[in-house]
Amino acid sequence: MDRESIEKRIEEVYKKKNFFEMADAKYIWLMFFGFKVKKEKLLPFSEDGKISKSNLIENIIQYSSIADDDFSIMSQLMDIHHRGFYTENCLARLFQRNGEDPAVAKRIFRNLDLDGYGRISYSQLFEILHS
């Protein structure tokens, strides 16, 4: 993701706002990544309980580049049985390994599993991550 496209997407919702309350910053994160970031992860970048648009954009860029770089590694880690798809439990294990709540992963998975078959292919996940 580039700075310009991120800023444009934020502007669509928040117009010319330059600082965000924590709840708004978490919502913006949700818009880009599909999950709410923990307040503690944004606090170091906040000033007086608010986070600037430029700091938030930098965090989004940094996180998205990590997500892109690690996509193939994540694919290998999640699909431990090499079946070509992910299950709810695969995503939960990945979240748990990274110190995140596996219950959140399960909720995310259920939202992503559009056909309700209980699995998501590599291509489906890649398409979702880059939409």
From TrEMBL:
Cited InterPro entries: EF-hand-dom_pair
SUPFAM superfamilies attached to this UniProt entry: EF-hand
Gene3D superfamilies: EF-hand (1.10.238.10)
The protein's name: EF-hand domain-containing protein
Species of provenance: Oikopleura dioica (Tunicate)
Taxonomy of the source species: Eukaryota, Metazoa, Chordata, Tunicata, Appendicularia
